[in-house]
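BUG: 3D viewer hangs when loading the predicted structure for this chain

Environment: internal workstation, default settings.
Expected: structure renders.
Actual: progress bar stalls at 90%.

Input used:
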Amino acid sequence: MSRDEFAAHVARLERASDLLRSRGCLLQAIARRYYLVYAYAAQAAETHGIVFRRGASADETRRLTHQALPNIVRALYTGLNSGPVFGGGPRRNADWAIDGCRGGALC
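Structure tokens produced before the viewer hung:
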């Protein structure tokens, strides 16, 4: 998804969540916010080249599912493989990480 498409998607989800919340539909608002987290994780995984694996090789046929979301977030945060997720996120390089620490370092 291009940057403009992603920004429009995020804006639409945020508006929907805010509208639902203002009308007292709290459970639906939470669901929209969850999908917002899912969209950010999917975009970050695509940006950092994180893919699923089957054994030791990448499996391009698998797609991100809600069940795999925790593994995607863990791979993005730690920079290490996580379950069926192959490839680390920005933490592989300490200069890219928010806190400036490498994946194996405790800060």
